[in-house]
Each structure stands twice: as C-alpha cells, then as structure tokens.
Amino acid sequence: MENNTNWGQSVAGVVVKEGKVLLARHTYGGGAGMLIIPGGFVEFGESPQDALKREFLEETGISVEPRRIIGVRFNMHDWYIVFEAEYVSGEAISDNNENSEVVWVDIEEAINRNDVPELTKTLLKHMSMSDGGLLYTHYDGKGKNAPYSLWCM
Questions:
Q1: Which fold has domain 2-152?
Q2: Residues near 94 by Cβ (< 8 Å), separated by ≥ 6?
Q3: For the whole model, what pTM was predicted?
C-alpha cells in the first residue's frame, strides 16, 4: 500500500537454490533493464523480515524465510538491509509490473554479467564469507544520496 510505505527503509534478499541465485529484471528507475536481487520498501509497522517475505512473494511468486543479514547499506537519508534467505516454495514468475522477468542464474555467471549491477555483484561476492561479522566494503554509490556506506559479511 503506497500510502503506508516507509520510503527510508528497504530490504532485499539473496536466495540460492541448487547453486543459482534468484534475480529479477527491473522495469523502472536507474536499474531499468538490470537483473537485481528482489526486494522493496518496508511498510510502516512492518519488520524488515516480514517486508522481505512480502516483497518476494509479490514480485517473484517465491516464498522465502530470512536467515541472516549479509549486508547493510545506508546514507544520511535511508537504509537498506540485505538478507540471505532460504527458498521455501513457489515458482519464479514475474509480477509484470516492477520486473519483466524472474530467473535463476548461476552465481558466477551473475557476477560476470553486464546486466547485473555492481551492488548485486558485491553482495553475491561477499555472501559466502563467514568470518562472523559485517565489515565495511567500499561502494561508490551513484545518486542523489551518495556517498553510501556498505557493510557486508
């Protein structure tokens, strides 16, 4: 519900199934035409975990369960939490609104594709690290609210 959207808080998730990551081809804004990890804005009164579950189901037809935080990006105006999430059920389908397709892509292929943005690539590269904490990772975000700070596993 757009009037209940907290524009300063957003979430995304990395879901891997059989060695492939779920990506959605974005249809608007700076990411139009790019394959990105699914996510969206948190609604007022909603936890980040519940927002992730809702956004995945709405945008991809996939039910997920958030497991751990693998990245946090923030600036002076907003924050963005990225979860590693477990696939629960569903078939990958586009919502034909915010994305034009939803696909499972081999992780290494996704990291090397030209139609996957740097933020998604950075998160995929750091996802498998398990040193027990989030570390600052340089991310030269472009946009009206840059510079960003990005913390990843």
A1: Nucleoside Triphosphate Pyrophosphohydrolase (3.90.79)
A2: 24, 25, 60, 100, 101, 102
A3: 0.86
